[in-house]
């Protein structure tokens, strides 16, 4: 079953959240509308700025852990390779 690692941002170069899921559109929707209390609702981290698909959940979890250990600038660089304008990619998921 495929899984995704994703990064949400409050604004470009500000607060980031890295997560993993098997249903990316549903999970981002939950973050956007504060359906699950926690970090993203507290700090208003709602824009999907980066994501990466993996073959299975274990692989995605390993990648998530790797990214969470990275320096902020490395995360910014990763985002900008896929999304140099820091657009909210959520709408693209639902096309």
Automatic annotation (TrEMBL):
<feature type="domain" description="GIY-YIG">
    <location>
        <begin position="1"/>
        <end position="78"/>
    </location>
</feature>
<comment type="similarity">
    <text>Belongs to the UPF0213 family.</text>
</comment>
<protein>
    <submittedName>
        <fullName>GIY-YIG nuclease family protein</fullName>
    </submittedName>
</protein>
<dbReference type="InterPro" id="IPR035901">
    <property type="entry name" value="GIY-YIG_endonuc_sf"/>
</dbReference>
<dbReference type="InterPro" id="IPR050190">
    <property type="entry name" value="UPF0213_domain"/>
</dbReference>
<dbReference type="InterPro" id="IPR000305">
    <property type="entry name" value="GIY-YIG_endonuc"/>
</dbReference>
<dbReference type="Pfam" id="PF01541">
    <property type="entry name" value="GIY-YIG"/>
</dbReference>
């Amino acid at each position: 079953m495929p899984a995704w690692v994703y990064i949400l941002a409050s604004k470009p170069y500000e607060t980031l959240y890295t997560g993993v899921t098997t249903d990316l559109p549903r999970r981002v929707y939950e973050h956007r509308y504060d359906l699950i209390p926690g970090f993203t609702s507290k700090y208003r981290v709602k824009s999907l700025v980066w994501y990466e698909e993996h073959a299975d959940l274990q692989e995605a979890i390993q990648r998530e852990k790797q990214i969470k250990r990275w320096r902020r600038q490395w995360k910014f660089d990763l985002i900008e390779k896929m999304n140099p304008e820091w657009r909210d990619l959520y709408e693209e998921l639902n096309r």
